[in-house]
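Hi again,

Forgot to attach this to my earlier email, sorry! This is the prediction with iron/sulfur cluster bound. I've pasted everything inline since the attachment limit keeps bouncing my files.
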Amino acid sequence: MSKRIGIEVSIALADAVGLCDVDVVAAYPITPQTHIVEHLAELVAEGHLDADFVPVESEHSAMSACIGSSAAGARTFTSTCSQGYALMSELCYIASAMRLPIVMAVANRAISAPINIWNDHADLMYARDTGWIQLISENGQEAVDLSILAFRIAEDQGISLPVQVNLDGFTMSHVIEPLMMPEAAEIKEFLPPFKPVLRLDPAKPITMGPVGMPDVFTEARKAQDEALKSSKPAIQAIFDLFAKQFGRQYKLVETYKTEDAETIIVAMGSIAQTAMTAIDAMRARGNKVGIARIRVFRPFPAAELVEAVRGAKNLVLLDRVTAFAGGEVSGPVALEIKSALFDNGLLPKVGNFLVGLGGRDVTQQNFEEMVERVTSAKNGDLPAYEFINVRE
Amino acid sequence: MGIASEALKNFKGFSLKNLPEVEPLSPGHRACQGCGEVLALRQAMKAIGTNVVVVSATGCMEIISSPWPQSAWRVPWIHVAFENAAAVVSGVETAYKALNRKKIVDQPDVTFLAYGGDGATADIGLQALSGALERGHNFIYLCLDNEAYMNTGIQRSSSTPFGASTTTSPPGKKSSGQATWKKNVAEIAVAHGTPYVATASPAFPIDLMNKVKKASLVPGPAYIHIYSPCPTGWRCGLDESVEAARLAVQSRVFPLYEVIDGHYFLSRKVAKPIPVTQYFKPQRRFRHLTEAEIGYIQVKVDELYEKLVEKCDQGDGNK
Ligand SMILES: Cc1ncc(C[n+]2csc(CCOP(=O)(O)OP(=O)(O)O)c2C)c(N)n1
Ligand code: SF4
Ligand SMILES: [Mg+2]
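Structure tokens for the complex follow:
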């Protein structure tokens, strides 16, 4: 049976990865991911986890070693963020194109400069076009559950894609939370042994990573696109399986008090938890506000999001990164949503706010201000995006 | 006795009489005629056989052997990127170690071989190589050194020899070609405490194959630096690349040696060297060099050779 414990989220996540009986971990330290990989190294060193920890000399080599390991048929895990992610990103495109089910935890952190070790979603957005599945957690329980789910999703032979588990750096990675930690036997029941579709094996030689000339490249890209596309229903089905066994139901888009909401916030990650507290307070004053929280950013659940916000007059869309597009288009999350709304002929009033950059807190009051800003604005008055909570 | 000497104590080499027939790298690939790099790789693969996983860096040998849906590889082969073959092979080797220990597979005797060009090895991939050597993975790394970035059109690398003309070290009014001396990656591998390090040349195929075989028998990392003439980039005749490789050894430009557990052994003493000009002559990349420049090169080549001989003499004596 699962046990309720109080534990630092990074440690819990590493324990969960260990319980998934990972074979190889290759990783390089970077704040605030360090506790995750340190704990995995410790589990291996103490003999609690029968795996090999490869202490590589860079994140570039971390992902390279993960690709080699996964291609050889081992269950493979790494973790990074920020500058580390940027350094390994060349290989992230290759891991997904080679359909290797690597799991990576990203303790989301800002990207330099100025150098800043605190939380925002710059690395999450840096990764969005790499062909990985991106899962987003909001609290410790979700970080643990999504890590277990990540292996199940990645290794599903119909999916066979790498998966990122995102957790906010420090605000999640370094806090102690109460959570239900599943037992090894329960995880074993949920997560079958890794059976690779193809493997580097002298008994059955294959060529992996060949040259793709113009006459085949488009076909290869389309096949990869299909894989990510068709993973969407498969991910929800695996979430449902998880719910059956563990009693915690996840959805591609999670909603809170959206049914009758006139104003809906759309957010990702731990700030959504603050938003829900703000919503309760606003509702107590008769303000009909709800929230849609994006659980899976890639594949992007456009249909589910449109369904969730269909009835709203006002949308408050949050981005936790600056996109540097020149000022006339919204941030990346808002852009996705606006595009989905357009495709569905919906024209609510939309405000896009860049918040929580490089560790700046987003308070309950900030949420109330953003809701007020959109509800009171006249149609057409709202800019493509605005920074909030910024000193002049 | 060190781990390499221990592993090699009963070593029986190849001879012309017992050359393996196996061709893990099959004919029909798209290398240029007379390519010394693919010749060296073919010899190496014959020595290794088929119980192997091969990791390739981006470069000529990757491009010419894997235009999907064709492949010249009869053994499992993976290419990921330019600068990371040593890191990828680290992952493959570690996976096999874990899977064997956990009894998920029963394949304890597989050899892990990574190769890259001089650019992939001496320049952009040096960090990944250093990491893999330092961590002590059980793998062989072959540097196929054709002394420039050939795949992208003959640009200089840190392994391009002094004076050579490349597209990014062109001779001109203010340049006499490559301005720096060739980086010695074999010495860098030795400095890592790598149990087996060697230099080899496709002009000496039995020696090359024996070295690759030895590398596979040594537990832990092994590094072999292979001189790999490229007629396209060196601008010599298509039928001259084996000869170029031979002249490089005979002129002491590229001495053949082994470093076993840190002890140096000359594979081939060059008592009566030919002048470097004889080696340069068929290659148009050296054609612009002045007498003074050639003189400088000759002195330095002799000096470096003497230093190497000294190291060999200091050890357990030469073979
Ligand atoms: C990160 C990166 N930078 C540059 C390139 C372009 N590139 C591909 S192969 C190559 C040169 C290869 O030279 P070398 O390693 O000496 O191999 P050769 O082709 O000479 O055998 C270059 C520069 C690349 N593929 N990736
Ligand atoms: S360019 Fe040189 S190294 Fe490349 S295939 Fe041709 S001959 Fe071989
Ligand atoms: Mg080269």
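The two ends of chain B are 17 Å apart (CA to CA). The longest strand of chain B covers residues 111-117.

That should be everything now.

G.
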